[in-house]
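Why does residue order matter? Because the sequence determines the fold. Keep that principle in mind as you read this record.
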Amino acid sequence: MINLFVRTKPKTQQRHRNHGRFHYDPSAKDKQDFIFQAKERIPKKPTTCTLDIHFTFCYKRPQKHYRSKNKQKILKDNMPYYKRSTPDIDNLVKFYLDALQGYVYINDSQVTSINAVKVYGEEDFVHIKIFNIK
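Structure:
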């Protein structure tokens, strides 16, 4: 199992741009930044196994989710756990699948199972668990 935990705000895959003969990925720099932050937990050689990947995208709760009591942050009643607003979960998953390609696995066609969730928490982070399927 590969366990990647990066304290960063989750990013989405931006649409690729074409300028005549040139093909441009506006998310390329963000993908490299993510790989740099996760490099200590990335294997030295990409795997060729079939994979099952679990994504947790956590967003810091907005201030309106809290009530103030003696300068302590207390969560209001009935505040959501799951984030239902933008960004779309499919764009989040696509960004990280593309970022990990060539580092953790050869091609994202090796991924046969995906579990993804967007939640609120105390800080922004991305947690990715990658399991080999035998």
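The first strand starts at residue 2 and ends at 6.
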